[in-house]
Design goal:
InterPro entries: Ig-like_fold. The protein has four helices and 48 strands. The protein is mainly beta. It folds into nine domains: 99 residues, Immunoglobulin-like; 79 residues, Immunoglobulin-like (Sandwich), CATH 2.60.40; 72 residues, Immunoglobulins (Immunoglobulin-like), CATH 2.60.40.10; 76 residues, Immunoglobulin-like; 74 residues, Immunoglobulin-like (Sandwich); 75 residues, Immunoglobulin-like, CATH 2.60.40; 76 residues, Immunoglobulin-like; 67 residues, Immunoglobulins (Immunoglobulin-like, Sandwich), CATH 2.60.40.10; and more.
């Protein structure tokens, strides 16, 4: 009793949780692939998993796995036992093995249903009678067969109606297949053209606007418009074919013609009013005032425009200009322009020389310092006024001279100029060398002065001040025209304009994947640009580097060629990499032949039975002649060469036979066969007689 209590106490300290206690096994599967699915896990009272040795017994308490059979749909109950040997405890669990059928029935053949319109609807029984089906386990009579959606079939309207064949076995495996219950009609559709088919060039058309389609049963006819012979881009008359197909696949073909015409006027865009400068245009320029001209079909340009006018482009005034254009289909358009010729430009004032005046010199003829012109008025018709009210001729300094010039059209130009009252002799400046900067760094004034030879009538050259009036971008290549102003102590100035060159004189870098390339005739032609491994430059970004590839490769001709890869930067520094490009041909020499048989004394012609491949450029054969008077075999050697000098050899057998001897031999053979046959017949007869005699004796 105490032992039992001890065992119960131990059992109460643990619990077992089983997994996979119900197992489904498909029909005919090996059950021993599933017997290890059940698993037991041991936990203590705190729900912690206990790790200890254990083993299973599969089939206890008068149950055994041997009874489990997967050939029939059935359930088997087997008791599993797990034993934890260190704890000396065991737990039993019932495991259920369900043998299941999980394969749906198979439909082998489904009858095609095509019925005339208004024919009685087939019953489910009638439809199923033509159905052939089976199941992997159950008998056919155990299967349930249904035809669904028969109520959707409209026997009064042709069309394809979907019905569903459903077959279910007793294990509720279902197979469904959708098929068509076809209702057909023998009535063809009707096509009627309601108006002529005339279409503007380069446009399409909607056939429903020109044709009417009707059908007794089908309101959704399939319309096929065959306009493959119609060129909508070229004027003319073309054949057109229209086919209407109903849902019974009955069709009607209608033949007609489509006419492509041009009834669209050209497009002509002209400014209604235009003002131009006098003396700046000629009559031939009037067409250039047209903003836009085009046509939907003809190629029209400004040269096709007719211009009607009476315009004097050298005289101020208003004029009427008519522009007209006509296409080849006589569609025309005209536009009118009011052209006003005006003097819109102000007079021009150009300073001939600096206004540097000696102090106390007030008797100055100012016109000598300026060049004053106008695009329309003569010089004498211009009104010129000098304003010297702000100039003090008795004191050294910088003063302002005002100059106003007005033409007859009231165009007025006012400009102001500095008048320098001072020592009039400026420094002498001569540029010795071109100013070139290659290191992309800022330069001071002393750097620029070193490019000039500086002298002055009074001051030392070191006292001359340099001012640079132009901003220079030292980080960008190019040419900047700079204004250099040299001043002496009396502020006499010398303006020098000189170009400052920021240049990149370092060549770019280009590298190839290889120095040589071999190409075989017939292979895919390589993209030469893909042979470049890398390219770069110290200044120019990669996208602006120019790559030029020069070659004269003939991919069909064997030889050695050169490919020049030329890389240029924005400063035109250039690098050239040369690759040797070899065009070769693979060995593919082919001579096909068949051995031939000739009669004695027949004429033998070389190349009989020989086919020379297209890569063979020259061939030889030995011997050159054979003696056909002698019966026997002759060997002819053929040698074929390709363009590279590669060759291949074949041996052709030519057999010389005597046809007369052959005929004699054939007669001898026939006689022997005949005699042999008679002997065999006699032998068989004798043997059969012996058997008959022996049977009679028995």
């Amino acid at each position: 009793m105490q032992i039992i209590m001890t065992v119960l106490n131990i059992l109460s300290m643990y619990k077992v949780v089983w997994k996979n206690t119900v197992i489904d096994i498909p029909l005919n599967d090996n059950i021993y692939d599933y017997v290890d699915y059940p698993e037991a896990s041991l936990y203590d009272l705190n729900d912690f998993l206990v790790s200890t040795d254990y083993y299973y017994e599969k089939g206890v308490n008068r149950t055994s796995l041997s009874v489990v059979n997967s050939k029939h749909v059935k359930s088997f109950r087997i008791i599993y036992r797990v034993t934890y040997s260190e704890l000396d405890i065991s737990f039993d669990e019932e495991i259920i093995f369900n043998i299941i059928d999980n394969k749906p029935p198979e439909i082998i053949k489904i009858p095609e249903i095509v019925m005339p319109v208004k024919t009685k609807l087939l019953t489910e029984k009638e439809i199923v009678s033509g159905l052939i089906y089976k199941d992997n386990y159950y008998k056919t009579e155990e299967l349930t067969v249904k035809v669904l959606n028969l109520n959707h079939v409209n026997i009064n309207k042709p069309g394809d109606y979907e019905i569903i064949y459903e077959i279910m076995d007793p294990s509720y495996n279902v197979t469904r297949i959708t098929k068509v219950y076809k209702i057909i009609s023998k009535e063809h559709p009707e096509i009627k053209q309601e108006k002529d088919l005339v279409i503007t060039v380069n446009t399409s058309f909607n056939h429903h606007n020109y044709f009417k389609y009707t059908d007794v049963y089908d309101t959704n006819l399939v319309i096929i418009v065959d306009d493959s012979n119609v060129n909508y881009e070229i004027l003319g008359e073309y054949p057109l074919f229209i086919t209407a197909i109903n849902n019974s696949e009955l069709s009607t073909l209608f033949k007609t013609k489509v006419t492509i015409i041009d009834d669209v006027k050209p497009i002509l865009i002209v400014d209604t009013n235009k003002v131009i400068e006098v003396n700046e245009y000629e009559r031939k320029d009037l067409k250039n005032f047209v903003t836009y001209v085009s046509d939907n079909y003809d190629l029209l340009t400004k040269d096709d425009i007719q211009v009607f006018e009476d315009v004097d482009l050298s005289k101020i005034g208003k004029y009427e200009v008519i522009y007209k254009i006509v296409d080849k289909s006589n569609n025309e358009i005209s536009k009118k322009m009011i052209l006003e010729v005006k003097d819109l430009k102000k007079p021009t004032i150009k300073l001939k020389k600096n206004l540097e005046i000696d102090v106390f010199d007030s008797n100055i003829f100012w016109n000598n310092y300026f060049e004053i012109t106008d695009n329309y008025d003569e010089y004498d018709d211009l009104t010129i006024k000098f304003d010297i009210s702000n100039i003090n001729f008795k004191k050294i300094g910088i003063y302002t001279l005002g100059l106003t010039v007005t033409d007859s059209s009231k165009n007025k130009r006012i400009e102001y100029f500095d008048v320098i009252i001072q020592d009039m002799i400026p420094p002498e400046i001569v540029q010795k060398n071109e100013i070139i900067i290659t290191d992309f760094t800022y330069k001071d004034n002393d750097f620029y002065k070193s490019f000039f030879e500086i002298t002055d009538n009074y001051d030392d050259s070191t006292d001359i001040i340099l001012e640079i009036k132009t901003n220079i971008d030292y980080f960008k290549t190019g040419v900047t025209t700079c204004e250099f102003i040299f001043k002496d102590k009396s502020n006499n100035q010398k303006l020098i304009k000189a170009d400052v060159y920021i240049i990149d004189n370092e060549i770019p870098i280009i590298n190839l994947y290889q120095d040589e390339y071999y190409y075989f005739v017939g292979d895919q032609i390589p993209n030469l640009r893909e042979l470049i491994k890398e390219y770069k430059d110290n200044y120019t970004i990669k996208d602006k580097l120019e790559i030029e590839i020069k070659s004269s490769i003939d991919y069909e001709k064997i030889g050695k060629y050169q490919v020049d890869f030329i890389l240029k930067d924005e400063a035109y520094n250039e690098t050239i990499k040369t690759m040797n490009f070899y065009v070769d041909k693979r060995k593919n020499i082919k001579i096909d032949f068949t051995n031939i048989t000739m009669n004695k004394n027949d004429y033998w012609s070389p190349l009989d039975g020989i086919i020379i491949g297209e890569d063979v450029v020259r061939y030889e054969y030995y011997p050159k002649v054979i003696d056909t008077t002698k019966v026997g075999k002759n060997e002819i050697k053929y040698i074929g060469y390709d363009i590279r000098g590669n060759y291949t050899e074949i041996i052709q057998i030519i057999e010389i036979v005597d046809e007369n001897n052959k005929n004699k031999i054939n007669i001898y053979i026939q006689v022997i066969i005949t005699i042999t046959g008679l002997i065999m017949i006699i032998y068989i007869y004798v043997q059969s007689r012996k058997k008959t005699i022996n049977f009679d004796k028995i």
